[in-house]
Every structure is written in structure tokens, then in C-alpha cells.
Write a structure and sequence with these properties.
Number of strands: 22
CATH superfamily: Jelly Rolls
Order of helices and strands: EEEEEEEEEEEEEEEEEEEEEE
Largest sheet: 7 strands, mixed
CATH architecture: Sandwich
Oligomer: single chain
Shape: globular
CATH topology: Jelly Rolls
Structural class: mainly beta
């Protein structure tokens, strides 16, 4: 029998700094919940909204795989590897911080907020050479499908990270249902509902709810609203 853990949207940490409104599924910065430190190697899931023209100044990271998924607006990225890029909805960015990087992230727009998911995953090897990856995906390929956006291998669909993790995004019509098969034995899946209402393995989820499922080889997914959007993050549990 599969294990599950449900995190309702309103149970998340809530940090409003004015220029930044961030909701933390797992312990982060001033939000510390000893029962919510991680799901397997999934360490951070932040639901961020950055005010017009504002952003995160240059700051360091090391030994973490960092995935950014823009939901609305344009996010400008600069880093110590010399990358300057703008990411928007449909793009996915991944950084292997490895031995250490610094970077900044700003809202490119002066008239509207930028919304994005910032996800941290513990790597499967430490002190790798830092690396930046960015891809633009066809949104049509996630309509009533689970579009792979992150993988552990270069050459597979999605951006690749140093971990046996697979992320998928789906935009689903009402009453659409599908199964997701676990890629690697022992992995679990953390599902995050970006928009709408879905049922996963019999658990009713609403917008911004999260559900972790492990000790299973597949999960079942059904959309209960038109244009439901869900992110599946399959990660090692140890």
C-alpha cells in the first residue's frame, strides 16, 4: 500500500516581504517546520511572486540542483558563469550549483509581477562543476499529456540535473485521467497543483495543494476542472 502525505495550500509557510511574496511548502529561511523539511531529496518548493521591477540581488549557492519554472511574467537571470537570460512561461531553467555559483534574479517587467516556482533538489554527487541549462517547451505538448521537463540524463527530454529525478507538467481537460509510472524503483512522487482541482490516488487536491506518494510503482491522476495544471516531481526517497 502506497504512503501519502498531504500539504494543503494554506498550511504552507507564508513570507511577505513586500517586493517578494513567497509560500514555502518545506522549511525555508524563517519558516521552520520540523515535519516539513523535505520530501526525499526534494528540499525546497517555493511559490514566489516578485513585484514589478524588483528581484533577488546576487547571492551564492553550492551543492544543490535548482530548477525554476516561470508561471507568469519574465524573470531575468545573471550568474557568475556569465549567463544572462530571461525565462518566461514555457521555459524551464536548471542550475547545478556544485562547487559554488552566485546569481541574481529580477522581474524584467516594470508594470506587472513575475510568478515562478523555485525548486531545490539535493544532488547525487557533490562538488560537480557548476552548470546552467535552459529550454523552451511547446505548451501544446502538455495538453492532456504529462510533458517531461526535467530528467537525470543529457539527451533526454527536459533539462537535466545531477539526480535520478524526473519532472513532468500536464494541462488537463476536465475528467481527463491518466497514470504516471515511476521511473526508478524506490522513488516517490511529489505532486503540486498549479491550477484547478485534481484527484491523485483518491486524494482530492485543489490549487497549490501538494501530495507526496511513495512505496508505489504508479499513481493515478484525474482532472476535476477545465485547464487543471499539475507538476509531478519524481525523486529518490533516500
Amino acid at each position: 500500500m502506497a504512503n501519502t502525505i498531504l500539504h494543503k495550500a494554506n498550511s504552507r509557510g507564508d513570507a511577505n516581504h513586500g517586493w517578494l511574496h513567497s509560500r514555502h511548502t518545506f522549511s525555508f529561511a524563517d519558516y521552520h517546520n520540523p515535519e516539513r523539511t523535505h520530501f526525499g531529496v526534494l528540499r525546497v518548493l517555493n511559490d514566489d511572486e516578485v513585484a514589478a521591477g524588483m528581484g533577488f540581488g546576487t547571492h551564492p549557492h553550492d551543492n544543490m540542483e535548482i530548477v525554476s519554472i516561470p508561471l507568469e511574467g519574465d524573470l531575468e537571470h545573471k550568474d557568475s558563469m556569465g549567463n544572462v537570460a530571461v525565462i518566461k512561461n514555457g521555459d524551464v531553467q536548471a542550475m547545478s550549483a556544485g562547487t559554488g555559483i552566485t546569481h541574481s534574479e529580477y522581474n524584467r517587467n516594470k508594470d506587472k509581477p513575475v510568478k515562478f516556482l523555485q525548486i531545490w533538489v539535493f544532488p547525487n554527487k557533490r562538488n560537480v562543476k557548476p552548470r546552467y541549462g535552459q529550454i523552451t517547451l511547446d505548451l501544446k505538448d502538455r495538453h492532456n499529456k504529462l510533458q517531461q521537463i526535467v530528467s537525470p540524463h543529457e539527451g533526454e527530454p527536459g533539462v537535466w540535473i545531477n539526480q535520478d529525478a524526473w519532472f513532468h507538467l500536464g494541462r488537463l481537460d476536465k475528467n481527463f485521467s491518466t497514470d504516471y509510472a515511476i521511473h526508478k524503483k524506490g522513488n516517490g512522487v511529489y505532486a503540486f497543483v498549479i491550477k484547478g482541482d485534481v484527484t491523485i490516488d483518491g486524494n482530492a487536491l485543489n490549487e497549490r495543494d501538494g501530495l507526496g506518494v511513495w512505496n508505489t510503482d504508479k499513481i493515478s491522476l484525474k482532472s476535476n476542472s477545465q485547464d487543471a495544471e499539475v507538476l509531478l516531481m519524481e525523486v529518490p526517497m533516500n
